[in-house]
Specification:
mainly alpha
Length: about 260
Amino acid sequence: MTPAQQLLLAATLTFVGAVVQALLALKSGAWKERRARVVFMALGFALQTGFIYVRGEEVGQCPMKSLPDILVFIAWSIVLLYFLVGSAFRLSLLGLFTAPLVSIMHILALIGGFAPYPPRGKINALIELHAAVALIAYAAFALACITGVMYLVQERMLKRHQIGGLFYQLPPIQGLASAIQRLVRLGLLLLSVSLGISFALHTSVSNPKIVFSWVVWGLYAVITILMWKHFTSPRKTAWLAVIGFILPFISLWIVTHA
């Protein structure tokens, strides 16, 4: 196992530890003690960052060309956005729902393996920026998906009158609906910037990567319009955010094999 893979394994174990700690805190009723889970998430993020740096040194460029590397970069972006938007949207349980997804993405990356990159010429910073912004956009869509799951869990608990420890730690259901909309709009904005950069690069519109990116953009543009015009209920909005992420997730295979 390479040093980069060791860092990724350590990050995975840290995020698993964050989930275990959060579940124990919920069970004991000590959820308000936030320091432990923030430390876990921050340590996991630091280890992720270390992996990206070391892996970048190994391949001689930003590691975003293979599917395992892309999974890790999106997972890193998800945790970054968690720190940036979690407190802003008052999503107190976002870490509990985020850490399992990040852990799964890490495990898939480790199973897939990290092969060397083929030699390449001079690195175009604009191309790297285009790819990075697109992947961060996918991370925003992933967080919208996670927030949608939180909404559906809370709605189910309300319908079944399951008012317990988990319920009291969830943000108001209206706040979750608002957060979903903001995250979808953020992801759409970032993806628009990425596609705008592709025009500056004179990338062919028939390029499979660009075609699929536009398909994802169109899907989330429709979702954004439906939310903006209130054509969908908050529950349907949550389902759209959850199911809608299937397409970007599948497109990762297209991006790396096209």
